[in-house]
């Protein structure tokens, strides 16, 4: 900190200069992120509630009401009645809250959690924090959790099974209904990580996935408004079917306006709740269907163009994620694309390039990418 401050004009000018170093979603070249540019109404709502703190809700009852309404809307979308939950920092904290509740409720001395090999990397952090032993089950030919292998991993120490509704790398939707049968059979908590897919699957034209609270064993779900919900970061969501579940993770807060907190992070911005609320209220179901529909149409454009150009799709897109390989060297092509200004992911486990088609990615961006991908592959 300098002894003397800058003028407002100079400080903002410096910030603008530094901000120019960041990539901009509007350019359409960020193809590796599950986040996107916040909806314009989300930005306005965020600014309006900038100083609110959900960690001290009696000081900010309006913000607390918005959080409750957002959780109720998410629960309704996922066919949950009388659910409870919180808006948290993101999918990692949401997954943490779910497994913390499952572990504490089970009261097992050597707790284990069964995870598909495709589970999000956040579970590695979570298992380390909670002293949970991760037991990984293999995948089927479509890169979904193999339910028979999952069941073989369940034993007397298992406190939870995790399924994913939209894996981060390939967009695969695990057979949650089959996992639910296994969880019920063994009386085990089933957590569904729908951080990404939770705000995609319900808006697909032909919904063929049963993944939500309609399944008896599903006790908790992660769903992130700051991904396909187009809310401002950070806005993750954790929802519990049982209203008593948060009692297993509560912490006493002796000097705040509420007696307990039910999240890992203490200070939580009410602005995120306001931004999510504003988008949900503004778009409604029909608006979200249009957004998801456009993303899926652009996804198919990527998939068809890549296939026609001779690239190999790892799987046919399930959600708005495309993964493909090059016979001439996938990793090398990924590096070439980065040099050309395209921000894609290279996934070593599947030796593939991964593209996430978020709302900021338009048809013209897809066409420009395909042109550069073909050119860079030929030059390899």
Description of the structure:
The protein is an alpha/beta fold and 380 residues long. It folds into 2 domains: 22-38 and 284-378, Aspartate Aminotransferase, domain 1 (Alpha-Beta Complex); 40-280, Aspartate Aminotransferase, domain 2 (3-Layer(aba) Sandwich). Helix content is 38%, strand content 15%. Strand 2, helix 5 (122-130) and strand 3 (133-137) form a beta-alpha-beta unit. The radius of gyration is 22 Å and the shape is globular. The relative contact order is 0.16.
Short précis:
This protein has 380 residues and is of the alpha/beta class. It contains 10 helices and 13 strands.
Q: What is the total domain count?
A: 2
CATH architecture assignment of the largest domain: 3-Layer(aba) Sandwich
Q: β content, as a range?
A: 5-15%
How would you classify the helix and strand content by structural class?
Answer: alpha/beta
CATH class of the largest domain: Alpha Beta
The overall pLDDT, averaged over residues, is: 96
- State the total count of DSSP E strands: 13
- For the record, give the distance between the C-alpha atoms at the N and C termini, rounded to a whole number: 49 Å
CATH homology superfamily of the largest domain = Type I PLP-dependent aspartate aminotransferase-like (Major domain)
Low-confidence stretches: none
Question: What's the main sheet like?
Answer: 7 strands, mixed
Series of H and E elements? HHHEHEHEHEHEEEEEHEEHEEH
The main sheet orders its strands as 1-7-6-5-4-2-3
Task: Categorize the overall geometry.
Answer: globular
- Count of discrete alpha- or pi-helical segments spanning 4 or more residues: 10
Radius of gyration: 22 Å
At CATH level 3, the topology of the largest domain is: Aspartate Aminotransferase, domain 2
Level of helix content?
A: 25-40%
């Amino acid at each position: 900190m300098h002894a003397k401050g800058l003028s407002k004009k100079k400080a903002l000018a410096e910030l603008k200069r530094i901000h120019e170093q960041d990539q901009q979603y509007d350019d359409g070249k960020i193809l590796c992120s599950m986040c996107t540019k916040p909806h314009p109404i989300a930005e306005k709502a965020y600014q309006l509630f900038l100083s609110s703190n959900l960690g001290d809700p009696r000081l900010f009852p309006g913000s607390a009401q918005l959080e409750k309404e957002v959780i109720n809307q998410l629960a309704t979308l996922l066919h949950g009645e009388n659910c409870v939950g919180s808006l948290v920092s993101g999918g990692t904290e949401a997954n943490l809250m779910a497994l913390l509740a499952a572990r504490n409720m089970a009261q097992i001395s050597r707790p284990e959690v069964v995870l598909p090999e495709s589970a999000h990397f956040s579970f590695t952090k979570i298992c380390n924090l909670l002293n949970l032993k991760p037991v990984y089950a293999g995948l089927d030919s479509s890169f979904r959790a193999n339910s028979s292998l999952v069941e073989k991993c369940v034993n007397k120490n298992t406190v939870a099974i995790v399924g994913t509704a939209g894996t981060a790398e390939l967009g695969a939707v695990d057979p949650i209904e089959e996992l639910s049968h296994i969880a019920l059979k063994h009386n085990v908590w089933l957590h569904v990580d729908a951080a990404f897919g939770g705000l995609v699957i319900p808006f697909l034209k032909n919904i063929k996935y049963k993944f939500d609270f309609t399944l008896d064993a599903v006790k908790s779900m992660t769903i992130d408004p700051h991904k396909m919900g187009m809310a401002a970061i950070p806005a993750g969501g954790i929802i519990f079917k049982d209203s008593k579940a948060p009692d297993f993770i509560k912490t006493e807060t002796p000097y705040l306006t509420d007696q307990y907190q039910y999240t890992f992070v203490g200070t939580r911005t009410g602005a995120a709740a306001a931004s999510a609320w504003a988008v949900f209220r503004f778009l409604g179901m029909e608006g979200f269907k249009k957004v998801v529909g456009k993303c899926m149409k652009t996804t198919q454009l990527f998939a068809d163009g890549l296939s026609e150009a001779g690239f190999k799709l790892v799987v046919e897109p399930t959600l708005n994620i495309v993964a493909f390989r090059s016979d001439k060297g996938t990793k090398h092509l990924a590096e070439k694309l980065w040099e050309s200004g395209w921000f894609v992911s290279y996934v070593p486990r599947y030796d593939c390039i991964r593209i996430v088609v978020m709302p900021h990615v338009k048809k013209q961006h897809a066409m420009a990418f395909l042109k550069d991908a073909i050119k860079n592959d030929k030059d390899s």
